[in-house]
Amino acid sequence: MQKSLRIGQILYTNVLPVYFYFQQERFEDQIEFIRQVPATLNQAMARGEIDLGPISSFSYAEHASRYVALADLSVSANGRVGSLFLFSKKPIEQLNGAKIALTNTSATTVNLLKIILSKFYDYEISYVTQEPILADMLREADAALLIGDDAIQAVRRGGDLHVYDLGELWHQFTGYSMTFAIWAVRKEVLAEQSELLAEVHNSFLASKRKTRENPAPLIDYVHTHFGGDKQEWAQYFQGLQHDFGDVQRIGLLYYYRCAAELGLLPAPATVDLWQAGGRQTNTTLTR
Ligand SMILES: C=C(O[C@@H]1C=C(C(=O)O)C=C[C@H]1O)C(=O)O
After folding, report:
1. Backbone φ, ψ for residue 69 (5° rounding)
2. By three-state DSSP, how is residue 7 classified?
């Protein structure tokens, strides 16, 4: 039997603060989790196979008329992210005319790279999309873009490549924060499941708050399951923001404007926020 809500979960550690204390037992008969990389979740949401969950903020914009976003949840950073890297054989200053391999797991970051290299560097680049395996990607390309745990593992392995953090580049050029994922809900689900949705939303928010107040149990967990160094994980989670307030909203809307300017999106999108009580806030940029 189909459960009442099918919820996506990005397979990467970056969303764990929002899931770590989620009260799964409480909703056991009512919800089902679908764990996948962002590009797969984006498609599943668009096809109506998932009811809510984190998707690429770029994909949200492509389908904005059909979605709303759960208030105050995102995967964002105001500067360095630590899990979105361009690995390059040459310094970025020498990449004009280069061939760059893009991971097939992303929608936001691949377009962020296109914006940065086209708008801020004025480069002509030829892009190919591939599975996220760095050695294969760099066989023919001059540089490769990875996100999530693939990027974390590749940077850990080290090597003599030039490595650029996309959140950091964006912040250097614009001064803005960047939001990579937001928790989208299909509009049909709002009418059918608003009570359950409110409870699920609250449980996500509570998990986020609890891991922020005391990150140690989450850090122990990722250290055990994903290796690495506890101090590095602590820094990683400190650098990420899972809120969606004014700082994140303004940065994201600017990204949407840049994407539309380059023809990557048909038009700059807005984000409609949903929270229990039915209050929706339209986040059109007014400045
Ligand atoms: C911070 C990250 O944000 C991610 C990047 C995404 C994208 O590029 O489409 C989507 C969701 C997030 O997982 C990351 O993967 O490291």
Report:
1. -120, 140
2. strand
- Report whether pLDDT(2) > 80: no
First to last CA, the chain: 48
pLDDT beyond 70 at 278: no
| Residue where a domain stops, chosen among 159, 174, 189 | 174
Query: What's the CATH number where 102 sits?
Result: 3.40.190.10
Q: Which two tokens stand for residue 69?
A: 């976003």
Bridge partners (DSSP) of residue 76 are 179, 241
The structure's pTM equals 0.95
What spacing in Å lies between the alpha carbon of 55 and ligand 1's midpoint? Answer: 9
Mean pLDDT (whole number) for 196-218: 97
Positive or negative: CA dihedral 119, 120, 124, 125 = negative
Any atom of ligand 1 within 6 Å of the Cβ of 84: yes
Q: What is the ipTM of this complex?
A: 0.97
* Distances 70 to 53, 88, 116, 150, 244 between C-alpha atoms, Å: 9, 36, 28, 27, 9
Query: Is any atom of ligand 1 closer than 6 Å to the C-beta of 81?
Result: yes
Q: Residue 130: its pLDDT value, please? A: 98
180 lines ligand 1 (CB under 6 A): yes
Host domain of residue 42: 5-76+179-282
Residue pLDDT, tens place only, 28-62:
899 999 999 999 999 999 999 999 999 999 999 99
Look-up of token digits 């969606």: 244
